[in-house]
Amino acid sequence: MTISSFNPPLRTLMGPGPSDVHPRVLAAMARPTVGHLDPAFIGMMDEVKSLLQYAFQTDNALTFPISAPGSAGMESCFANLVEPGDKVIVCINGVFGLRMKENVERCGGVAIVVEDDWGCSVDAHKVEDALKANPDTKIVAFVQAETSTGVHTDPLILCKLATRYGALSLVDAVTALAGVPVLVDDWGADAVYAGTQKCLSCVPGLSPVTFSERALDKIRKRSSKVQSWFLDLNLIMGYWGEGATRAYHHTAPVNALYALHESLVMLQEEGLENAWHRHAKMHLGLKAGLEAMGLEFAVDEMYRLPQLNAVKIPDGVDDAALRKRALERYGLEIGAGLGAFAGKIWRIGLMGQSATPRNILLCLSTLETLLSQANVKVESGKAVDAAQKILF
Ligand SMILES: *Cc1c(COP(=O)(O)O)cnc(C)c1O
Q1: Which atom in ligand 1 lies closest to the alpha carbon of residue 207?
Q2: At which residues is N6-(pyridoxal phosphate)lysine found (predicted)?
């Protein structure tokens, strides 16, 4: 059998990630590969670090991309900061909080779980109670933008609480970064990880991270070695750290880093605040359209993420069949529900380059057609009209 080149179909990506990647970013990725210690490449690495400081709104010197997806950013934070026996408060209100707990336990830490219902944000009162009950807590970990439910949790109060009780804060900002404000220095956050394939609209496979001096101090004072050789920050810093001498640690994903550089240049050109405003406005346009169609959100308006819209599936609609049709006929990908929300919601992503009027109008007209074919009563054209009023 002869296998020929793989030519992916053109899709419109409106799920929980990856998001649509701009042609400029794809073109950057196709530029010639250079050595990972080439002086020209090292200059570009320094630019990536300072562009990431801008995206994270931080002066933290230790701000760089881990050479692996968001999950590895998560793992690098836990593997470096948690020592065996450390108590870690883990806030769980969806899938990614559950994964945090798993990370803590695999690092030999003791997870103190603070649970909130799926679809609700993290309750700071419960976190404070847990801190009072466990004064020896070392870390408070939570997810700012819970992609499994579309819920936002404000990190300011949780980071300040952690600091006040002598603990470090560890924040999952994978879906948050560039979609809603991520203000690492204003919050005093200690360890934050993100992803490239959500609101940065870069290719999947890299995870920007940033660590405060307090976090670095804990890592330097560890009495045991970090159990992961690949993710040990003490070693990675020989390659990504300050100064002109860079030592080989692993071969950086050179072309993927060109892509990240380009997507961050595009973020800087747009302006971080303008990016937040665009996500907010696109969300309002989508919301107006969905509501005109009679659809409802699964999350209270107060906690809704603009970039991840959790929408209730109307009774009697075959979830998988509808999403399959959307993909096959219209090239449109929307996300399924996870865990407690499987079969109950759709997750419509408006992340990065996917947060455009064009995508919203395609999504609304696709849903309108497919829902009416599934015998849901929808008035033809109403959703697109309602969205246009907000979008233009
Ligand atoms: C997507 C996501 C991750 C994992 O990122 P990958 O790139 O898929 O490994 C972690 N946390 C949250 C909140 C996410 O949305």
Answers
A1: 7
A2: 198
**Distance in Å, CA 295 to ligand 1 centroid:** 27
Q: What are the pLDDT digits (tens) for 341-391?
A: 999 999 999 999 999 999 999 999 999 999 999 999 999 999 999 999 999
CATH node for 271-391 = 3.90.1150.10
Look up residue 263 and give its two tokens: 């997507």
* CATH code, residues 22-268: 3.40.640.10
Residues 6+ apart with CB under 8 A from 271: none
Instruction: Please name the residue whose Cα sits nearest to atom 2 of ligand 1.
Output: 174
Per residue in 190-219, pLDDT tens?
Answer: 999 999 999 999 999 999 999 999 999 999
- Residue keyed to tokens 């934050």: 192
Q: From ligand 1's centre to the CA of 265, what distance in Å?
A: 22
CA–CA dist 271, 288 (Å, integer) = 26
Domain residue ranges in the chain: 22-268, 271-391
